[in-house]
Design brief:
Blueprint: H1 2-56, H2 68-81, H3 90-93, E1 94-100, E2 107-110, E3 126-134, H4 135-138, E4 154-162
Antiparallel strand pairs: 1-2, 1-3, 3-4
InterPro entries: TadE-like_dom
Protein name: TadE-like domain-containing protein
Pfam family, one: TadE
């Protein structure tokens, strides 16, 4: 009788582990994936900030393409954070866009794959840099088996800085 009771307890414990372990693993993967996504979003924000800081100190001619210095600053931050490879460029795997009001109104300087958010712009001279990457570059798409799929979706971050060379 005692042996039968121990066998039932072991069987029920094994059944609890078999049923509970997949749920525990899914929660663990979800926490890890969203943590990695949040961390890499900060790196994307740093890249847009670096681009905006460089653009804020440049002489920008309205109608000209996006300055190479801005692209270089964005690429450098993204390479250091591991979001793009050493031979990759943001222009090929994502997008950078810069807006400014140096010609009296909002001027789209360059747009490649991402749109800036619609926010109220300041009255003073400014530059705004938006950087976007595909979401699967920020975190692996491990939860797609549960229907949480973010393939072909872009994550964008925007930074707005005062243009330093304007009066």
């Amino acid at each position: 009788m005692l042996l039968m009771h121990k066998a039932r307890r072991r069987a029920s414990s094994l059944l609890e582990i078999i049923l509970g372990l997949p749920l525990l693993l899914m929660v663990l993967f979800a926490v890890a994936q969203f943590g990695l996504l949040q961390s890499n979003q900060q790196s994307l924000k740093m890249a847009s900030r670096a681009g905006a800081l460089v653009a804020a100190e440049l002489t920008i001619v309205p109608g000209e393409p996006l300055p190479g210095e801005v692209l270089d600053a964005v690429n450098e931050v993204l390479r250091q954070s591991g979001l793009i490879g050493s031979a990759e460029f943001i222009e090929l795997v994502g997008g950078v866009q810069m807006n400014h009001n140096l010609a009296g109104g909002d001027v789209l300087v360059a747009g490649m794959g991402c749109d800036p958010p619609t926010i109220p712009y300041p009255d003073r001279p400014y530059v705004q840099v938006t950087v976007c990457l595909e979401a699967t570059r920020l975190a692996p798409n491990t939860l797609s088996i549960l229907g949480i799929n973010f393939s072909n979706r872009f994550v964008s971050m925007t930074s707005l800085h005062r243009h330093e060379l304007s009066p």
